[in-house]
Design a protein that fits this description.
The complex is a heterodimer of chains A (about 350) and B (about 280).
Chain A lengths: L5 H23 L7 H8 L5 H36 L11 H18 L10 H26 L7 H26 L4 H8 L8 H20 L1 H7 L3 H6 L4 H23 L5 H12 L4 H25 L8 H19 L2
Chain B lengths: L1 H33 L12 H16 L6 H20 L6 H26 L3 H8 L8 H20 L1 H8 L2 H6 L4 H23 L5 H12 L7 H20 L10 H19 L1 H4 L1
The chains are: A mainly alpha (about 350), B mainly alpha (about 280).
InterPro entries (chain A): ABC_BtuC-like, ABC_transptr_permease_BtuC
Family (chain A): Belongs to the binding-protein-dependent transport system permease family. FecCD subfamily.
Pfam families (chain A): FecCD
Amino acid sequence: MNRIGIAPLACWILLPLVIGLSLLLSLCLGAASLSPEQVFAALTGTGSEHGQRVVWDLRLPRALLAAVVGLHFALSGFILQALSRNPLADPGILGISAGASLAAVLLVVAGAMLPAGASLYLQGEQLLAWLPLGALAGGVLAAAGVYRLSGAGRLTPLRLILTGVVCAAVLNALMTGGLALWGQAHTETLVAWLAGSLHGREWHYIWVILPWTLLGLTGAALIVKPLGVLRLNDEQVLSLGVNLGRWRLLVLLVATLLAASAVAVAGPIGFVGLVVPHMARWLVPGALLHQLGISALLGALLVLVADLAGRTLVVPFELPVGVLCALIGVPAFLYLLKQQP
Amino acid sequence: MQGILFWELRLPRTLLALLVGAALATAGGIMQGVTRNPLAAPDLTGVVAGAACLVVILSTLASVDAAWFPLAGIAGGALAGGLTFVLAWKNGLMPVRVVLAGVAISAVCVAVMTGLLVFSGAEAGELFFWLAGGISGRGWEQLEQVIIWIAPPLLLVVALARRFRVLLLDDAMGRSLGVSVSRWRLVFMLLAVGMTAGAVTVAGPVGFIGLVVPHITRQLLSEQSLGWLPLNAVLGALLLLSADVLARLPVAVQEIPLGVVTALLGGPWLILLMRKDFGRVG
């Protein structure tokens, strides 16, 4: 498409503005409210020490991470929906998040159980750096398993979704079991992580996920064209002389990479990948590239706002962002299900 | 010592395993038969999650006496299951639609439960273990609590097997036999929900039994046969008992949660079944 229409242009301009505004809000609001002036002072390094600490060390990395994680889930969901030609696809529903979580949990448990010498690389920040890789392996395995079991080449949308749901159920049961087995001392932390939480996320989480974000964005840009082709009928695609299986695998890999790395730092936040692509398609019908970009921005906005709401609504407590996203996402999912022929 | 081990620990636990397995499997058979839907099991339709959710709500927010849990579970399970079927309804109940609506309803229940677990703090560990599913440490007390919710419905279902057989036919044929199809359908669904809720309150959300067992029994005996529902109960009881024995084998420091064993046994089976039998499911 040579000329950008009015709708995409408006979205591209407005969404970053709204995201910026929400970012500012999430720097201001919280247990200790700061005025925008105090926030700016802290950001430029002229504020009080307390303000510096709150803004730089706590709120800014957390808000940025929320945005990045939202972008990951939304892009992954968009790609999966286009790939499976299924408006109900989502990394959570297809079992990718569950596979990634299971692998991450196994890594954490192994780190805690191995003798001190052996687990040198499985502790603290080293462990954190390994987590995305582990989660990616788990996510890829789960995605590949779901893909194979649902009949690989003869992939029909319904088959894929059903197989995904069942695999996710099995993986989730294993994960809950793994956690329960590991002992009750850590359950509070882990329950929070499994709920999808951004509590206490500081800068090193950003550095851990950033390479994956860049890789994922590059991958997403590369697969725009194949994705456009894969949205057609199987017969139409085959008549173009395209190797369907290989393309699907590549596209699936990019979606998995995005979802798994986000799971590794924030836990399995569901339904972002389900809802956001629909909003994007509704806002900018037609052009795939715009939809992909708008999805990413909308996902960032959604998780940012959900996290802000989760930590300011019921103050002494903090609602995990995953819980809020599920509460927003499920009605949308049910509405979409009603629309299905 | 041996007497205590046998009378106070192993015997009640074994009886509970049999009871829970029979309840879940029969409930699965009923739900699959009544809705003519091979995937309509208590766990996939949100009944299990709904029951668990209301129990968690009552125990964290209202600190209600444990004796009320089965009732709360029935209410929650009926609510969630009913909602699933209402939402999935579109010119009939398509299996895939039921499963997807059930996934959504379960997700809401899990979100609410997780939120409450985060608030409840100290009890989180205990609740988390319950949510993994298992009957370790359960004794006569729990058995007495739930047996009234499981055994009478089981007996009733066996006694009403003739009615159930009619429900498997199509509606017009049932009516021509002089049976009020929709009323009996409701009765059977409520019995199934009651059994499930009883099982969930004592054992936590143990998955896959209600889904897989009816598929196995269908290979052994025709659904139309009067012995089909009782066969489900027997096989479910056996399966859950063996899963529980596996769960407490001394391989790990701690017991493996029962839900994990049933997922490991049932999950692959289910996936294979879906591969083979997809035509009926989709």
